[in-house]
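Deliverable D4.2, example record:
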Amino acid sequence: MTFKVYSIVPVKGTLLGKSRLLSVLSDNIRRKLVILMFKDVITSLKESKFLSGIIVVSPDDKILNLSRKYGCIAIKEKPKSLGLNRAVKLGVNAAIARHADAVLIVSADVPLVTREDIDYIISIGYDLSKNQPYMIIAPSKDGGTNILMLSLPSSFTFKYGFHSCKKHLAEAIKLGLKTIIVYNERISLDLDKKEDIEFIIKSCTDKETVKFLRSVL
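Output generated by the structure prediction step:
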């Protein structure tokens, strides 16, 4: 496949991640969880047959050092984060500098995502790229955006935050992008609530995140 795609993984950091689970998990467990989810996501991306590279954007040196060990491109975000949209834009700029045809933006907290999920979305992008600019989006179950693939170049303005899926769809319509929505239970789970933890513990997978949660809960 002569199609250059870079994945972008923005990560808040081990101290800031999973704040919605403060009432359920201790600080130490949440820090460990952020690392393990990140490892699971990166492992699936590394296994992809189609990615040209992975760009990690984070203010957290531990995350960035781990990224380099996995062979990722690590971009240091300012300690006082300017927000997820800014982090994603930094990643997109790095992909553009490497002459990418498209970017695949993946949340760092979708630990159940598989290589097959990643390659399926990229293959859709490859087919669409022959005819028109496009956006492919895989929403979270609460209306967020867990994976977004975008053809380049693009003047797309990212709208991460509350109900971002709906906002990203509106942005794609405004720009006249061919849009595909991918519904996938593994991708839609982003581990923000107690019910998410219960679901992931029962999942039939050997992901590190799952094994860890089973061991501590």
